[in-house]
Amino acid sequence: MPLEDWQKQQIERNKEAEEIARKLANMVNCFGKHEDMQVLVDTLLLQHKTLQQSLFTHLFLKFIEAVVNLEDWRVDGRNEAMKKTCDMIYKALLDNDMAYKEGDRKRIAELPLV
């Protein structure tokens, strides 16, 4: 059975997301100096404010939540500090009733950008 157009588009978006993730990981691995990361941060901050908010909520907070929910076997000495940091951030968001929830537009709009 042939794929619908929307299915083909979703497959392409998934491939693009995977490629972006690989490029970002490679950048951090090969060019992980403070100056390189600052260029990335500065470039993201030049984006439209709505895109900045979307990056924060749909990528960064989603990543934090995914790390919080990692299975124990996926955490070891190499990423333990990241896990602990994400746990603390997520707990602070929960304590302030600001944890990201998929589709919760009101909550997203209330997230403080610090």
Question: Mind explaining what this structure looks like?
Answer:
- The chain has helices at residues 5-31, 34-45, 49-68, 80-95, 105-110.
- It has 114 residues and is mainly α.
- It folds into two domains: 1-46; 48-114, no CATH class.
- Helix 3 (49-68) packs across helix 4.
- The longest helix has 27 residues, at 5-31.
- The radius of gyration is 17 Å and the shape is globular.
Q: How would you sum up this structure in a few lines?
A:
71% of the residues lie in helices and 0% in strands.
Observed structural traits:
114 residues, 5 helices, globular, single chain, mainly alpha
* Structural shape: globular
Q: Distance between termini?
A: 49 Å
Tell me the structural class.
mainly alpha
Mean pLDDT: 87
Q: What value does the Rg take, in angstroms?
A: 17 Å
- Uncertain parts: none
**Count of discrete structural domains:** 2
- Number of helical segments with 4 or more residues: 5
- Give helix and strand order, one letter per element, not per position: HHHHH
The share of residues in extended strands comes to: under 5%
Count of β-strands: 0
Main beta-sheet annotation? none
